[in-house]
Amino acid sequence: MSTTTPSPRVALVTGGSGGIGQAVVERLVTDGYAVAVHYAGNQAKADALVKKVEASGHSALAVGGDVADEEAMRAAFDRTEAAFGGIDVVVNTAGVMLLSPVADLDLDDLDRMHRTNIRGTFVVSQQAARRLRPGGALINFSTSVTRAKFPSYAGYAASKAAVEAMSLILARELRGRDITVNAVAPGPTATPLFLNGKDEQTVDNLAKAVPLERLGTPEDIAETVAFLAGPARWVNGQVIFTNGGLA
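User: That's the sequence. What structure does it adopt?
Assistant: Structure tokens below.
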């Protein structure tokens, strides 16, 4: 009697060369996934992560493109399917955060956030809805600021509130497909995106605002993603606030 080794589950991680994205890639690889590491501008960083994954004996692929460009994302999904045979999990960590009070926000910055965070999430979610295999999961990214309501975050939080809305509706649109759709809403997390432009006092104050009295780590967020990607088949159409109790 012959036996065959089951193929690994396959994940595509947008923003996979970034802080949280890289932690997600590394965690999913540890769980046995083959992973497509998406990058927007830093191919060298994505390639280095792919080499690291391959050196550990696992499979990975770098795919590039603007998440808001439907042709680029169609090509990224095509390359992932061609390399690994299909896609089971899509994790959409790609995002832009530009902070300013409402009265002072440059509307070009607002448009940039909306293009990446709203349109980009929609484009990737659309491809995921068309392509994920049964038993699959789409995990989008929101922010705990939709609850915490920090001043200067209005434009960013507004874009992420839209992500929550589309994710929860898509979960219901995929009825009968055995595909879950959830959003992760991190609290203050020590990534370059979060720390950029903040002085030490601001960072300390944000850490102390959390009952656990520390910033989150990318690995903290990746833990939630791994749960939603695999074992959490009864968690669907939810926003998971991974924030140490901030709000």
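The beta strands are 10-14, 34-39, 60-64, 89-92, 137-141, 180-186, 239-242.
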